[in-house]
């Protein structure tokens, strides 16, 4: 018996070796587990990263509320899954505020699956305040394709724009009163057909990765802008242009918005744009520009356009606009607010980081402008400038080494020099609860708390002791003889006192939340000892912008190049 057992073992081993060598049998592959490396929540979105799985052929990614069961997982779009040199990443967007769990599922080469889930991720709501959300406005919102809770509107369309799909993405657009559909190819034709005004379907245009001017060839207008245009003044567009993740970048082109109502632009980096980065030019309303990184533009022909012209401008009867949580990187002219205006208009600037930008924060003509909780961080020329009978409520901002925090044309600080604002009439600023450090000049109308004694006739601003204080009509501009219109106490400005952060919290809130998701993929440290007072182009910063390349390798879960994808949800 013992001898037979020994012979049997030898026969078994011999047979096994024969089978393996002959290829008629193979041992099962060992399943490789998924290693999650990072996950987190942001404003109405969440993300997850993981190490590549060697024998994975594709990935699926899901999201669910943290308190819900596994049957509540919803699969995200394949285009939201991207490959980078050492990791994969997926973003879930359009989430309401709350806690969520994301799950990654790897499809292995042998057909089996491995999965891993994140811990609970906290997702916050975007800050929907300011004139874009005023009840006095035409549409009452600037949320574009999204509901006020952050989810896509019913029936919303979603298209993905990448370096590979900008020219090939397709969408069926309604082109006449009878509802005829025409298939548009390329983002330029899609927007052109939407301009006919028959299709008001909510549309989310999602940008992924670094999309260059060459990638957008044939999609831009003759001046190098992606043009979002309505059929006529203040046409309802219900449109959102949004970047996905931390590295969505418009590289070498800008965005022009005209005749539009209810448009949102968010989470984009804008580099080396022509003339203006974002231009709200002519008859727009309920527009919300937020969480963008705006860098240097292309140098213009004038000496003061070395950094580009306007980073984010609003003009020609555009109104009920909110600029919020944007990061301006050493801009020369951050924001012109008013050009060729014939009537009052309403704009809010809040929680923007004017990071060593030089001037126009904003530069106001005529309008009623609310400016609160912005961080003025080393501004070589001036902060807020007002002309042409405008009224500005400047509230709870932090001015650090801003040379002239507030100026009105031809009076106060502006009258000490040759004049900054082309000889235009002045306007009135109402200042309340601002923190000002290291200003060269600030003259109040009714207080000695500026850099010099107050002057009731030639002043930069009226200093209010209460938020709802009205400015007496006895304070008038030297040039133009206009008064403050007290719009902030008479209109729905879309901001309540509880929406305003304490001025001592502004630096922390703005520097942590402005710009793209998680501060984007571009880093730079300014030297305050030099850059606070310099308005020249920072040559090292410009060189880094010009050499910028996204690290994105591929888009979609199957290790393939980017895909043309249109979805109607």
Cα-to-Cα separation, first versus last residue? 72 Å
- Fraction in helix: 10-25%
- Major beta sheet, strand line-up: 39-37-34-31-28-25-22-19-16-13-10-41
SSE class: mainly beta
Biggest sheet overview = 12 strands, mixed
Q: What best-fitting shape do the alpha-carbon axes yield?
A: globular
- Round the mean pLDDT to the nearest integer and report it: 93
Number of helices: 7
The low-confidence runs, each spanning 5 or more residues with pLDDT under 50, are: 1-31, 559-569
Tell me the radius of gyration.
28 Å
Share of residues in strands:
25-35%
Number of strands: 41
Protein model, in words:
The chain has 569 residues and is mainly beta. The chain has seven helices and 41 strands. The strands form seven sheets. A twelve-stranded mixed sheet has the order 39-37-34-31-28-25-22-19-16-13-10-41, with no helix packed on it. The longest helix has 21 residues. It starts with a helix and ends with a strand. The N terminus and C terminus are likely disordered.
